[in-house]
């Protein structure tokens, strides 16, 4: 490419700026004694600065390599965070055993545990420094890209624009790469909470397994866990959990933060009153209020934990016999996103197809309904993000797929394929939390969560100065 640019530069400098007198006949007397054709070319005082253009090309290549390296680091961060979380869970379990029965351990056991704790602390510190280092790299790369575009603009103003096009194309690719890398870094470590400036989910992280639930039994397959999607002040770090061996819940446990969730140190346990059974597998907490399903009468219900006031509403057409593939009795499925509170269900009139309804949180009534074409018994679970319904199904025993979405703003539905890994084969609860932009899954008795990445292609800020084909 450099050789081609050099040839084009010479040709351009001759034709564009020189004066060429071709086939000018002159009579000259010389050793040959005959006439011959001569060509006079008058070149400008300055030629095309090919060295500058080559330097720009090399800079673009170097920036591209640096970006590829940083993109690889982002993938590595995901894996490391999962590994460190597992190490912390293991250490927590060992420490609890020591606390319950210290006489069964000798001094060497305690010292080994202390060493493991120090190792995990060192790993976390190393990861934090690496993340900070990536931020510094992004800032440096952005300065380099700014310098590249300044050079290109200068060359275009003073020399032949066509010669700069090839480098300009490469520059645009690199700038797009930089934006994508910075966006993914931002979404992973500093998510833009509350923003819907995207076109939907692009991928999910590996499953982050916190630990077995507070009941310490995998037989508690039904239930849920997560955070309040609209937390009260000073309760932003609070987690909740409820589990059962049957498709109903009887109490909710609250934890001040993630550490106490892992240590199973609840600060509050609230029991549901007698008769409030049949909650299915889906329930969420929003604004310190539990939203769930009851069977007598079959309806949606809510319980405010601040006032302990209880309400329920019957949705006449909702079916009490149509549920998800792997979750019996999950007839109503509650969801919360950036725009508020939702509930989905199916009706006999709709042929078992899912209906989306927006809930007015103040009146606890339905504001509007949307009818989809997706058959609820063919769906494993569903959740809402920015007014868009996402439905999942199983690919195999380890793989789940988001295969369908419905946009309530445009009333458009689309078949998609975003696959992600399950920790265990079955799960009973899957909910998105707009407060931290994570997906929470109750997976056969285990706390599992996922980071989300969103597609920002339509919102890219890179605007080429002219058409590049």
Compact description:
32% of the residues lie in helices and 32% in strands. The chain is of the alpha+beta class and 469 residues long.
Question: Could you characterize what this model shows?
Answer:
32% of the residues lie in helices and 32% in strands. The chain has helices at residues 2-17, 50-100, 107-158, 165-189, 258-262, and strands at residues 19-26, 36-42, 201-204, 208-212, 222-227, 239-244, 251-255, 268-271, 284-286, 289-295, 298-304, 310-313, 333-337, 340-346, 353-360, 365-375, 381-385, 388-394, 399-407, 412-421, 429-433, 438-443, 446-454. The strands form 6 sheets. Strands 3, 4, 21, 22 and 23 form a 5-stranded antiparallel sheet that branches. A 4-stranded antiparallel sheet has the order 5-6-7-8. Helix 2 runs parallel beside helix 4 and helix 3 runs antiparallel to helix 4 (165-189). The longest helix is centred in the N-terminal third of the chain and has 52 residues, at 107-158. The model is unreliable at 1-33, 40-46 and 458-469 (pLDDT under 50).
């Amino acid at each position: 490419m450099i050789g081609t640019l050099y040839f084009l530069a010479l040709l351009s400098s001759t034709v564009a700026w020189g004066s060429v007198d071709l086939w000018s006949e002159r009579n000259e007397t010389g050793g040959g004694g005959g006439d011959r054709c001569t060509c006079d070319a008058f070149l400008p005082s300055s030629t095309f600065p090919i060295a500058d253009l080559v330097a720009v090309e090399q800079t673009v290549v170097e920036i591209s390599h640096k970006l590829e390296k940083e993109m690889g680091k982002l993938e590595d961060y995901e894996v490391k965070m999962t590994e460190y979380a597992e190490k912390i869970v293991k250490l927590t379990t060992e420490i609890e055993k020591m606390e319950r029965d210290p006489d069964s351990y000798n001094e060497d056991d305690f010292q080994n545990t202390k060493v493991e704790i120090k190792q995990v602390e060192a790993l976390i510190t190393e990861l934090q420094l690496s993340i900070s280092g990536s931020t510094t790299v992004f800032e440096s790369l952005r300065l380099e890209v700014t310098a590249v575009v300044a050079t290109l603009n200068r060359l275009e103003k003073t020399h032949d624009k066509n010669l700069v096009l090839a480098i300009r194309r490469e520059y645009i690719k690199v700038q797009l790469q930089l934006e994508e890398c910075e966006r993914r870094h931002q979404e992973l470590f500093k998510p833009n909470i509350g923003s819907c400036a995207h076109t939907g989910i692009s991928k999910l992280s590996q499953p982050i397994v916190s630990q077995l639930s507070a009941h310490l039994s995998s037989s508690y397959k039904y239930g849920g866990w997560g955070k309040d999607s609209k937390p009260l002040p000073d309760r932003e770090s609070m987690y909740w959990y409820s589990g059962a061996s049957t498709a109903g819940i009887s109490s909710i446990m609250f934890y001040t933060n993630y550490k106490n969730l892992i240590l199973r140190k609840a600060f509050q346990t609230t029991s549901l009153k007698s008769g409030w059974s049949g909650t299915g597998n889906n329930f969420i907490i929003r604004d310190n209020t539990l939203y769930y399903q009851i069977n007598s009468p079959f309806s949606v219900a809510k319980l405010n934990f601040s006032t302990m006031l209880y309400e329920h509403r019957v949705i006449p057409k909702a079916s009490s016999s149509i549920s998800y593939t792997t979750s019996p009795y999950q007839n109503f499925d509650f969801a919360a996103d950036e725009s508020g509170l939702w509930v989905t269900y199916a009706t006999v009139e709709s042929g078992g197809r899912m209906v989306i309804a927006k809930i007015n949180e103040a009146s606890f009534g339905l504001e509007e309904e949307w009818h989809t074409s997706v058959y609820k018994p063919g769906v494993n679970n569903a959740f809402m993000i920015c007014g868009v319904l996402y439905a999942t199904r199983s690919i195999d025993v380890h793989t789940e797929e988001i295969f369908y979405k419905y946009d309530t703003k445009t009333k458009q539905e689309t078949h998609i394929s975003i696959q992600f890994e399950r920790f265990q084969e079955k799960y009973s609860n899957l909910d998105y939390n707009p407060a931290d932009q994570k997906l929470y899954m109750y997976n056969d008795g285990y706390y599992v969560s996922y980071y989300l990445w969103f597609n920002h292609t339509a919102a890219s800020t890179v605007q080429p100065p002219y058409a590049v084909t």
